[in-house]
Write a structure and sequence with these properties.
Layout (H helix, E strand, L loop, with lengths): L1 E4 L6 E5 L37 E2 L20 H11 L10 H12 L21 E3 L2 E2 L1 H4 L1 H10 L3 E3 L11 E5 L10 E7 L8 E3 L7 E3 H7 L4 E7 L5
Antiparallel strand pairs: 1-2, 3-11, 4-5, 6-11, 7-8, 7-11, 8-9, 9-10
Helix pairs in contact: 1-2
Protein backbone atom coordinates (compact mmCIF):
# COMPACT_ATOMS: atom_id res chain seq x y z
CA UNK A 1 0.00 0.00 0.00
CA UNK A 2 1.31 3.51 -0.73
CA UNK A 3 0.97 6.74 1.19
CA UNK A 4 0.66 9.80 -1.03
CA UNK A 5 0.97 13.47 -0.27
CA UNK A 6 -1.88 15.58 -1.61
CA UNK A 7 0.12 18.82 -1.46
CA UNK A 8 1.09 20.43 -4.76
CA UNK A 9 -0.54 20.11 -8.16
CA UNK A 10 -0.65 16.30 -8.15
CA UNK A 11 -0.31 13.47 -5.62
CA UNK A 12 3.29 12.50 -4.85
CA UNK A 13 4.37 9.12 -3.50
CA UNK A 14 6.22 9.74 -0.25
CA UNK A 15 6.41 6.35 1.44
CA UNK A 16 5.44 2.75 0.79
CA UNK A 17 3.77 0.98 3.70
CA UNK A 18 2.46 -2.48 4.30
CA UNK A 19 -0.21 -3.80 6.63
CA UNK A 20 2.21 -4.23 9.52
CA UNK A 21 2.89 -0.50 9.58
CA UNK A 22 -0.74 0.20 10.46
CA UNK A 23 -0.51 -1.83 13.64
CA UNK A 24 1.25 1.14 15.24
CA UNK A 25 -0.71 4.21 16.26
CA UNK A 26 -0.21 7.16 13.93
CA UNK A 27 -1.32 10.72 14.45
CA UNK A 28 -3.69 12.40 12.03
CA UNK A 29 -1.19 15.16 11.37
CA UNK A 30 0.81 15.65 8.21
CA UNK A 31 3.88 14.25 9.96
CA UNK A 32 2.35 10.83 10.49
CA UNK A 33 4.47 9.20 7.80
CA UNK A 34 7.61 10.26 9.63
CA UNK A 35 6.53 8.18 12.64
CA UNK A 36 6.82 4.93 10.68
CA UNK A 37 10.34 3.48 11.04
CA UNK A 38 12.19 3.12 7.77
CA UNK A 39 13.59 -0.25 6.86
CA UNK A 40 15.22 -2.24 4.06
CA UNK A 41 11.90 -3.15 2.43
CA UNK A 42 11.59 0.17 0.60
CA UNK A 43 14.51 0.63 -1.74
CA UNK A 44 15.68 2.73 -4.65
CA UNK A 45 18.03 2.16 -7.56
CA UNK A 46 21.21 0.24 -6.77
CA UNK A 47 24.48 2.13 -6.88
CA UNK A 48 26.16 2.28 -10.29
CA UNK A 49 29.26 0.22 -10.88
CA UNK A 50 28.64 -2.42 -8.20
CA UNK A 51 30.77 -5.55 -8.56
CA UNK A 52 29.52 -8.79 -7.07
CA UNK A 53 31.94 -10.50 -4.73
CA UNK A 54 30.09 -13.82 -4.98
CA UNK A 55 27.20 -15.12 -7.03
CA UNK A 56 25.91 -18.59 -6.22
CA UNK A 57 27.79 -21.16 -8.28
CA UNK A 58 30.74 -18.90 -9.11
CA UNK A 59 34.21 -19.60 -7.83
CA UNK A 60 35.44 -17.11 -5.25
CA UNK A 61 38.28 -15.02 -6.71
CA UNK A 62 41.48 -15.18 -4.67
CA UNK A 63 43.83 -12.77 -6.45
CA UNK A 64 45.12 -9.53 -5.03
CA UNK A 65 43.87 -6.01 -5.72
CA UNK A 66 45.39 -2.58 -5.14
CA UNK A 67 44.82 -1.25 -1.65
CA UNK A 68 42.04 1.32 -1.39
CA UNK A 69 42.81 4.86 -0.26
CA UNK A 70 42.55 5.53 3.46
CA UNK A 71 41.23 8.54 5.33
CA UNK A 72 42.76 9.34 8.70
CA UNK A 73 39.53 10.59 10.28
CA UNK A 74 37.66 7.34 9.56
CA UNK A 75 38.37 4.21 11.60
CA UNK A 76 37.52 0.72 10.35
CA UNK A 77 38.71 -0.64 13.68
CA UNK A 78 36.28 1.67 15.44
CA UNK A 79 33.49 0.46 13.15
CA UNK A 80 34.21 -3.13 14.18
CA UNK A 81 34.53 -2.28 17.88
CA UNK A 82 31.13 -0.56 17.94
CA UNK A 83 29.50 -3.45 16.06
CA UNK A 84 31.04 -5.93 18.49
CA UNK A 85 29.71 -4.01 21.48
CA UNK A 86 26.19 -3.63 20.05
CA UNK A 87 25.38 -6.55 17.74
CA UNK A 88 23.34 -8.20 20.50
CA UNK A 89 21.28 -5.04 21.16
CA UNK A 90 17.56 -5.13 20.41
CA UNK A 91 16.53 -4.04 16.92
CA UNK A 92 15.31 -0.46 16.62
CA UNK A 93 13.49 -0.96 13.32
CA UNK A 94 11.45 -3.84 11.95
CA UNK A 95 14.31 -4.45 9.52
CA UNK A 96 17.33 -3.09 11.35
CA UNK A 97 20.33 -4.39 9.41
CA UNK A 98 21.33 -1.24 7.53
CA UNK A 99 20.57 1.03 10.48
CA UNK A 100 22.99 -1.14 12.49
CA UNK A 101 25.68 -0.92 9.79
CA UNK A 102 25.25 2.86 9.47
CA UNK A 103 25.48 3.34 13.23
CA UNK A 104 28.65 1.24 13.28
CA UNK A 105 30.22 3.43 10.59
CA UNK A 106 29.14 6.68 12.26
CA UNK A 107 29.31 6.01 15.99
CA UNK A 108 32.26 3.66 15.85
CA UNK A 109 34.13 4.58 12.72
CA UNK A 110 33.56 8.31 12.88
CA UNK A 111 32.00 8.65 9.41
CA UNK A 112 30.24 12.01 9.38
CA UNK A 113 26.57 12.36 8.52
CA UNK A 114 25.81 14.14 5.27
CA UNK A 115 22.97 16.70 5.21
CA UNK A 116 21.32 18.57 2.36
CA UNK A 117 22.48 22.12 1.74
CA UNK A 118 18.94 23.57 1.74
CA UNK A 119 16.51 20.96 3.01
CA UNK A 120 16.99 17.49 4.42
CA UNK A 121 15.26 14.96 2.17
CA UNK A 122 14.98 11.44 3.50
CA UNK A 123 14.90 9.89 0.02
CA UNK A 124 17.86 11.84 -1.32
CA UNK A 125 20.68 9.66 -2.72
CA UNK A 126 23.10 12.41 -1.69
CA UNK A 127 22.25 12.51 2.03
CA UNK A 128 23.04 10.08 4.85
CA UNK A 129 21.81 11.07 8.28
CA UNK A 130 19.84 10.00 11.34
CA UNK A 131 18.09 12.39 13.73
CA UNK A 132 16.13 9.78 15.67
CA UNK A 133 14.97 6.19 15.27
CA UNK A 134 11.90 7.47 13.42
CA UNK A 135 13.65 10.17 11.37
CA UNK A 136 16.53 9.11 9.14
CA UNK A 137 17.33 8.92 5.45
CA UNK A 138 16.57 5.82 3.44
CA UNK A 139 20.30 5.67 2.70
CA UNK A 140 20.84 5.20 6.44
CA UNK A 141 18.26 2.45 6.90
CA UNK A 142 17.79 0.56 3.59
CA UNK A 143 20.51 -1.52 1.95
CA UNK A 144 19.85 -0.45 -1.66
CA UNK A 145 19.69 3.23 -0.76
CA UNK A 146 22.82 2.88 1.37
CA UNK A 147 24.74 1.46 -1.61
CA UNK A 148 23.31 4.17 -3.86
CA UNK A 149 24.51 6.96 -1.56
CA UNK A 150 27.98 5.47 -1.15
CA UNK A 151 28.26 4.98 -4.92
CA UNK A 152 27.06 8.50 -5.71
CA UNK A 153 29.61 9.89 -3.26
CA UNK A 154 32.36 7.83 -4.92
CA UNK A 155 33.20 6.39 -1.53
CA UNK A 156 33.22 2.65 -2.25
CA UNK A 157 35.72 0.18 -3.62
CA UNK A 158 33.80 -2.99 -4.46
CA UNK A 159 35.97 -5.83 -3.20
CA UNK A 160 36.54 -8.55 -5.81
CA UNK A 161 38.60 -11.21 -4.04
CA UNK A 162 39.09 -12.90 -0.68
CA UNK A 163 42.52 -11.42 -0.06
CA UNK A 164 41.14 -7.87 -0.27
CA UNK A 165 38.39 -8.26 2.37
CA UNK A 166 39.09 -6.13 5.45
CA UNK A 167 37.61 -5.88 8.91
CA UNK A 168 35.31 -2.86 8.87
CA UNK A 169 34.03 -3.53 5.33
CA UNK A 170 30.27 -3.72 4.83
CA UNK A 171 28.71 -6.87 3.36
CA UNK A 172 25.58 -6.37 1.26
CA UNK A 173 23.39 -9.27 0.18
CA UNK A 174 20.78 -9.78 -2.50
CA UNK A 175 18.57 -12.79 -1.86
CA UNK A 176 17.42 -14.99 -4.72
CA UNK A 177 13.76 -15.65 -5.41
CA UNK A 178 12.35 -12.52 -3.78
CA UNK A 179 11.04 -11.08 -7.03
CA UNK A 180 13.44 -8.18 -7.43
CA UNK A 181 17.13 -7.30 -7.74
CA UNK A 182 17.20 -4.94 -4.78
CA UNK A 183 19.77 -5.45 -2.06
CA UNK A 184 18.17 -7.09 0.95
CA UNK A 185 20.67 -7.03 3.81
CA UNK A 186 23.74 -5.32 5.29
CA UNK A 187 26.29 -6.55 7.81
CA UNK A 188 29.62 -5.41 9.31
CA UNK A 189 32.64 -7.61 8.56
CA UNK A 190 34.90 -8.18 11.56
CA UNK A 191 36.97 -11.16 10.40
CA UNK A 192 38.84 -11.74 7.16
CA UNK A 193 40.95 -14.55 5.75
CA UNK A 194 41.46 -16.96 2.88
CA UNK A 195 38.16 -18.88 3.19
CA UNK A 196 34.48 -17.98 3.31
CA UNK A 197 34.25 -19.35 6.87
CA UNK A 198 36.92 -16.87 7.99
CA UNK A 199 34.90 -13.89 6.69
CA UNK A 200 32.86 -13.15 9.82
CA UNK A 201 30.12 -10.60 10.30
CA UNK A 202 28.02 -8.89 12.95
CA UNK A 203 24.48 -8.09 11.86
CA UNK A 204 20.94 -7.24 12.95
CA UNK A 205 17.52 -8.38 11.74
CA UNK A 206 18.46 -12.02 12.09
CA UNK A 207 18.82 -14.75 14.69
CA UNK A 208 22.32 -15.16 13.26
CA UNK A 209 23.82 -11.96 14.65
CA UNK A 210 27.36 -13.35 14.70
CA UNK A 211 28.00 -15.54 11.68
CA UNK A 212 30.28 -16.07 8.67
CA UNK A 213 30.00 -15.98 4.90
CA UNK A 214 30.10 -19.76 4.51
CA UNK A 215 27.04 -20.11 6.74
CA UNK A 216 25.23 -17.30 4.89
CA UNK A 217 25.84 -18.97 1.52
CA UNK A 218 24.57 -22.27 2.91
CA UNK A 219 21.41 -20.74 4.39
CA UNK A 220 20.66 -18.53 1.38
CA UNK A 221 20.90 -20.56 -1.86
CA UNK A 222 21.34 -18.26 -4.84
CA UNK A 223 22.55 -15.31 -2.74
CA UNK A 224 24.65 -12.60 -4.39
CA UNK A 225 27.25 -11.00 -2.14
CA UNK A 226 28.73 -7.52 -2.45
CA UNK A 227 31.49 -6.25 -0.17
CA UNK A 228 31.94 -2.49 0.14
CA UNK A 229 35.27 -1.05 1.28
CA UNK A 230 34.12 2.42 2.30
CA UNK A 231 36.36 5.46 2.36
CA UNK A 232 34.22 8.53 3.14
CA UNK A 233 34.87 11.38 0.70
CA UNK A 234 31.99 13.65 1.61
CA UNK A 235 33.73 15.76 4.27
Amino acid sequence: MARRSESGPSPVLTQRLDAADFLSSLSASGTAAAQVPLDGDDTDVTAPGMDAFYTDGDALPVGTAPAAAKRASFSRGGTVSWAEAHYADADELRTDCTNFASKSLHRGGGAHMEYGSVIDIRRSPYEWWRKSKSDMTYSWSAANNFANFMGNEDSVTWVRNLSSVSAGDIMLLEYAGDGDSNLDHAAVIYGAGSTTSSIKVYQHSSHYRNTNLAAIIKRRPGVTVYIAHITPHWY
